[in-house]
Amino acid sequence: MLLVMWMAGCLLAALASVALSAADGPWLLGFAAILAAQCVVLAGRAARLPGWVTWPAGLALVAVYAVRYGTEDLVTYVALAAALMILIDRLAALSDGLSGLLLRDGRPSGPTDPIARDFARVRRQEVPLSVGLVSVSEARPSPRRVARVVRQVLPYLRVTDTLVRLPGGGVAVVLPGADARIAASVLGRALAAEPPGLLLGVATFPEDGQTFAVLKEVARSRQRPWPGDAGPRTREPRRSPAPQPVDGRERPAVLVETRGLDLPLRRAVDLLVLAATAPVAVPLIGALALAVRLDSPGPAFVRIKRLGRDGRTFELLKLRSMRRDADRMKEQLRHLNTMAWPDFKIADDPRVTRLGRVLRKTSLDELPQLYNVLRGQMTLIGPRPCSVALADYRLWQSERLEVTPGIVGRWQAEGRGAMDFADRCRLDIRQVRTHSLRLELLLVLATIRSVFASKGAY
C-alpha cells in the first residue's frame, strides 16, 4: 500500500515540477527533489522516526533545488512541496498496514471476503465469534493515533482473525472461535501500553447478533473508556511485554470499510422501476383490494411481521387471501401440515378464500409489497422474507439475513411453496453469494415462468 502511495506521489510531483520548474530550472531535477522529499517522509514513517526529523530533511531538499536554480517564487514552490508531502503522509497514515481489501458498504462482500469466510465457518461449526470495537474518544481522531492502535493490535491476532478500519477512526477486530471473555483478554493485552483516550466494546455471535453489522452496533453501544474501571477487565498487567513479530505472510487480513455504490445504485433502480410501474400497479392494487373486500368479510390488506436485513422485523403488506380468523385456526389445523416445522403448508387450506386461491397462484397478493420497497424495507430482487422466527433459525441459515429481502427470490422461481425452509435457505445463500445483474435478470424471467405455470403455489 505504501508503494501505491509512493507512485501517486510520483505523479503529483511530476505535475508540480513541470508547472513550477519548466521556466526556471530543469523540471526533471525539480521532480527528483520533490520525489526525494516524499521518500524521506515515507522512509521516516517506515522507520518510525519522529516527524520533526523527517519533515525538515524533506523540505530542505526542495529548498536547496529552488535556491540553486533561482526559482522565482521560492515560498510557493516549497509550500506546494510541503502540501504534497502532507497529502502523501496522510494517505500513508490511513493505509498503514492495509492489505488492500475492501469491505464494501460495511458488510461481507462475497465468498472471497475474510469476514464472509469467518461467518460462514462459525455458522456451520456453531462456534462463537466476537467483534471488538476500539475507538479513539476524540471528536476528530488523528490518523496517526488510529494507525498506532492498528500496529499495537495486529501482533496479538491470529492469521484467522481480521482487523477492519472503520469510518470515523474506529477499529473492529473479528475473532472467530473466541467468546467475549477471550476477546476482552486479547484486546486488553494488545492495548495495555496505549495511553488513555480509547473506547472498547465487545459483542459475540450468536448471542448478541447474527450479522457483522448488528455485532458492530452492539459493540459500539457497549463501549467504555479503556483503560478504566468501566471497561472490560483482564488479569494481565497494564504493561505487558511486546510480542515477537510474525512473518508478514501469516499476518491477519486488514480491511478498510468503505461506502460503495452497490446499495445506492440498487436503491435508485428500485425507485425508477416503482415510478415506471406505478401508473399500472396502483390502479391494479386498488381493483384487487376492492375485489377482496367484496369476496369475504375483513380488511383488504394485512400486515405480517417478517424478518428483514440483519434480523430486524418489519411489517410486510399483502392482499388478504385468508379468512380473518386464519391465525386462530392454525393450531387446529397443525396436524394437516405437509412440511417440517417451522414451515406450515396445507395443500387444500380451508382458511384460503375463493379469490385468495387465485391471488396466491398468480402471486398477485404480493403486489402491495411495492410499498415496502418504497420504504426501503425490501428490494425488488432478493431473498424472500419468510414467516420463520429468528429463534427457529439454525446458525448457518442466518447468512440469508445479511442482505435486504426482496419481492423476487431464487426459491420463488425454482420451487415456490413446495420447498422446505432449509432448502430455501440454501438457495437464498447461493443468491447472496453469487448475485450479479445477469443472474438477477434470469431470475426475473424464471419467476415469471414459474408464476404462469403455478409451480409450487397453493
Throw out a few tags for this protein.
single chain, 458 residues, alpha/beta, Alpha-Beta Plaits, 3 domains, seven-stranded mixed sheet, 15 helices, 46% helix, elongated
Describe this structure in words.
- The chain is α/β, with parallel strands linked by helices and 458 residues long.
- The relative contact order is 0.08.
- The chain has 15 helices and eleven strands.
- It folds into three domains: 2-94, no CATH class; 101-258, Alpha-Beta Plaits; 262-452, no CATH class.
- Residues 1-7, 95-106 and 229-246 have low confidence and may be disordered.
- The longest helix has 34 residues, at 262-295.
- It is elongated and about 90 Å long.
- A hairpin with a 5-residue loop joins strand 8 (301-307) and strand 9 (313-319).
- It starts with a helix and ends in a 6-residue tail after the last helix.
- The strands form three sheets. It has a seven-stranded mixed β-sheet, with helices on both faces. It has a two-stranded antiparallel ribbon with strand order 8-9.
How many separate domains? 3
Rounded radius of gyration (Å): 29 Å
Strand order of the largest sheet: 1-7-3-4-2-5-6
Main sheet attributes: strand count, strand direction, barrel closure: 7 strands, mixed
Q: Residue ranges: pLDDT <50 for 5 or more in a row?
A: 1-7, 95-106, 229-246
Number of strands: 11
